[in-house]
Amino acid sequence: MAYYLGIDGGGTKTRCLLADETTVLAKAMTGGSNIVRLGETQAREALHTAIRQVCTATKISPDQIRAICIGAAGAARPEIAAKIRTILAELIPEVPLTNIEVVGDTVIALEAAFGAGPGVIAIAGTGSIVYGRDAAGHTARAGGWGFAVSDEGSGHWIGRRAISAILSARDQRFETALTAMVLQAWKLNTLDELVQQANSTPPPDFPRLFPIVLRAADEADSIARDLLADAGAKLAALAAIVVRRLAPHAPVAMLPVAMTGSVFRQSPYVRQVFYNTLQTSFPGLDVRQDLADPVEGALARAKRK
Questions:
Q1: Residue 69, helix vs strand vs coil
Q2: Using the 8-state DSSP alphabet, how is residue 291 labeled?
């Protein structure tokens, strides 16, 4: 019997599915494996751990795996895809290189949401990007140019903006629950220490502040809620760009929109703002409420090998 691996290599976590022709047999989740963000050593370790876990759980030898598909941020660049393929070939040398597919995270997310059909997928996790395809195969993207200059609405963007909001509130003598929460999370005592930490090189782990923003918003902190609303609006603006770019080739009604990623998954408020904003811009647009699961898209592509 043939077995297949689907992998979603994210910036914060790596998810892996092992399946036969009909059934998912094992799942694993490990740390991030985004080479661009984390480097080759950490990516190799996360991928190795995930693959070992699913093979151990099913008592399946790696040489029984027929094909692998991994989706990862940055993998649209040939040099990044080549590095990831080399890592997987080292970890599972029994799989022919021709049966190791490395694609961008947008590709497996779009596959999970729409199969081979048309649609637009908004991804908001550690980073963010919106990607779409019409029925004729035309594609378009918006955002996703990296955490330092883009990735609007992502966990990194929200975390960094939270620091800016804390300092702006201090300037204006506003109160926000975010101040005490972030100081506690980063084990700091003063705003001066916060400023030093936020401006350090390499930069701090801003995405880990996203759950704190969620908690502050749940406690009715207006500044935290404004941050989440802005994230939803920014993501909707990116989606609108992609819809408009594809619209000359297909009616808007033929371009359903789906969401995926930890920001959408953990924040109903971001999802609602995203939905409402797009509905205002494109009345009647099919914005799907169920979140797509990119690792399932990776597995579907592996099975086609």
A1: strand
A2: P
CA–CA gap between residue 112 and residue 275 (Å, rounded): 19
| Nearest alpha carbon to residue 49 among 212, 275, 57 | 57
pLDDT band at 82 (very low <50, low <70, confident <90, very high): very high
Given a contact cutoff of 8 angstroms between Cβ atoms, the answer to whether 118 and 254 are in contact is yes
Q: Which amino acid is located at 8 in the chain?
A: D
- Its pTM stands at 0.93
pLDDT in tens, 25-71: 999 999 999 898 889 999 999 999 999 999 999 999 988 999 999 99
- What is the residue type of 301? R
Are residues 176 and 165 in contact, defined by beta-carbon separation less than 8 angstroms? yes
What torsion do the CA atoms of 85, 90, 95, 100 make, to the nearest 10 degrees? -10
Residue length of the chain: 305
Spell out the residues 6+ positions from residue 21 whose beta carbon is closer than 8 angstroms to its own: 1, 2, 303
Encoding tokens for residue 114? Answer: 């729409």
Backbone angles phi, psi at 282, to 5 degrees: -135, 80
With b for 16 or more beta-carbon neighbours within 10 A and e for fewer, the 219-248 pattern comes to: eebebbbebbbbbbbbbbbbbbbbbebbee
Q: Report CA-CA distances (Å) from 295 to 132, 149, 201, 298.
A: 18, 27, 33, 5
Going from the C-alpha of 293 to that of each of 47, 106, 107, 170, 283, the distances in angstroms are: 18, 11, 12, 40, 26
How many Å apart are CA 198 and CA 208, to the nearest integer? 13
Q: Beta partners for 18?
A: 5, 26
DSSP type of residue 287: B
